[in-house]
Amino acid sequence: MSARALAPLSLFYVRDVRPAIVARRRERDEDVISHLIDQDYTDPEILIECVTYGAAGMVTTREYICMVAWHLLEDAELRRRYLTAEQTERHDILHEILRLEPVVGHLYRRATSDITLQDGGTVHHIPAGAVMDLSVRAANADPDVVGEDPLCVRPDRAMSKGVRPEAMSFGDGNHRCPGNSLAIHETDILLTRLLALEPVLESPPRLGWLDLIAGYELREVRLRRAA
């Protein structure tokens, strides 16, 4: 690692991570560092996990904010509804856009034991050790789960029992995104302030894809103040 990269990492450790480790060794809390201490992680290993959590949350939330802004800037009625709504309804809109536009389109998991799944009249057998490709984008657009017009933004859609408003976009189970609430709140705070300035989208952003996770990248998003 170069000195240029090592300096900010060291500063992050000294100012943020190490004091948190000391505090959590003294008194546990419901957070990642407490969990890692209980798993006997070393300080360098905890630092790596903190960087991973921070980078993953930053990158995915950044792309999601750009995608939501794109939707709202191109849909005047949805933008008006978002800006005049209370927080609960605004979050409904954000969750619905996330359902339609998951930042990570695929999740990969390895079966720890033999699994048998039934889809209608078809039975699938997955052997232990097999890698499963979970298509989040396809699952989020299943009309049997999310209702009619699955490819349309409908914040008031009635989801099937047990299905969250964003469907599988934050994952599920033990691997469910721990920062899901923070991502929604961050997006809401930024966009309510941004859209209040009445920005105009000069041109559609350049859309790219990360093949490994079928995730999108939005670049060259250019806004200007309305005249």
TrEMBL record:
Keyword field:
Heme, Iron, Metal-binding, Monooxygenase, Oxidoreductase
State one Pfam family annotation. Answer: p450
Protein's UniProt name? Cytochrome P450
**Database matches in InterPro entries:** Cyt_P450, Cyt_P450_CS, Cyt_P450_sf
Which organism's genome codes for this protein? Mobilicoccus caccae
Signal sequence bounds: none
Q: Which family would the database say this protein is a member of?
A: Belongs to the cytochrome P450 family.
